Amino acid sequence: MEFEKLIAERRSVRAYKNEPVAHELLVKILKEAQAAPSWKNLQASRCYVVEGEKLEEFRALSLPSFNQNSSRGAALIVTTFVRDIVAFTNGTADTELGNKWGAYDLGLHDAYLVLAAKNAGLDTLIMGIRNPEAIREALEIPENEDIMSVIAVGYRDQEPGMRPRKELGEVVRFF
Ligand SMILES: Cc1cc2nc3c(=O)[nH]c(=O)nc-3n(C[C@H](O)[C@H](O)[C@H](O)COP(=O)(O)O)c2cc1C
Predict the structure, then answer these.
(1) Ligand 1 midpoint to CA 128 (Å)
(2) How far is the CA of 52 from the centre of ligand 1 (A)?
(3) 1 pLDDT exceeds 80?
(4) 78: closest CA among 144, 14, 37, 134?
(5) pLDDT of 118-172, one tens digit each?
(6) Which domains does the chain have, with CATH numbers?
(7) Does residue 161 line the site of ligand 1, with CB under 6 A?
(8) Which residue's CA is the nearest one to ligand 1's atom 27?
(9) Its pTM surpasses 0.85
(10) Residues with Cβ < 8 Å from 13, sequence gap 6 or more?
(11) What are the two backbone dihedrals, phi and then psi, of residue 88, each rounded to the nearest 5 degrees?
């Protein structure tokens, strides 16, 4: 899909068809997300994909009811990053931002992921309101990873409009 169209048409979608996403398609978008830049190419972002029969039980334990309802029918990708690696040298942070750089890299990764999904004919919902303890236990996520988002990936069953954006002048200053 043309890039302008891709970014214009991506939305947070909160209603999905009960139509499974093919495993191969998930692999394709996960590979494309790996093309995202990362600090020193450390690639500390991690994904845990829940699909098929395991989905409904996992959805119920991992998300509050409003996000369960918004994501029903979609596969779920939990994204994490390995702590104390990105912008760390011998266990010491290279900058005042510490592990925020790991979160920064993961955000870039996830931005690529949602655009790759859109390009593959899928829609997404990034969910930051989730139950990290239950997710860690269910997916056996190591303690040295910070759990950030759960991303729903599926086939849209609604046509949400573009949510308003601030005027550029409110958020950008040119010098
Ligand atoms: C880090 C992050 C966390 C979010 N968490 C949630 C969430 O828990 N539930 C939800 O419905 N939407 C969530 N959203 C979606 C935002 O509300 C949405 O991106 C924003 O309103 C702009 O709409 P758009 O994505 O359609 O452009 C989240 C988005 C981001 C980037």
Answers:
(1) 8
(2) 24
(3) no
(4) 134
(5) 999 999 999 999 999 999 999 999 999 999 999 999 999 999 999 999 999 999 9
(6) 3-158 (3.40.109.10)
(7) no
(8) 11
(9) yes
(10) 123, 124, 125, 152, 154, 156, 158, 160
(11) -125, 140
Ligand 1 binding pocket includes 62 (Cβ within 6 Å): no
Angle at 30 between CA 75 and CA 15, to 5 degrees: 30
Residue owning the nearest CA to atom 7 of ligand 1: 127
Whether 103 lines ligand 1, by a CB cut-off of 6 Å, is no
Model confidence pLDDT, tens digit, residues 91-129: 999 999 999 999 999 999 999 999 999 999 999 999 999
Best mutation site among 106, 126, 158 for ligand 1, i.e. most ligand atoms within 8 A of its Cβ?
Answer: 126
Ligand 1 pocket member 129 (CB < 6 A) = yes
Q: Considering the chain, what is the average pLDDT of its residues?
A: 98
Q: Please provide residue 34's backbone torsions phi and psi, each rounded to the nearest 5 degrees.
A: -65, -15
% of the chain residues with pLDDT over 90: 99
Residue of 6, 10, 11, 12 with the most ligand 1 atoms within 8 Å of its CB, for mutation = 12
Rounded Cα gap, residues 58 and 68, in angstroms = 10
What residues does 153 pair with on adjacent strands?
A: 75, 124
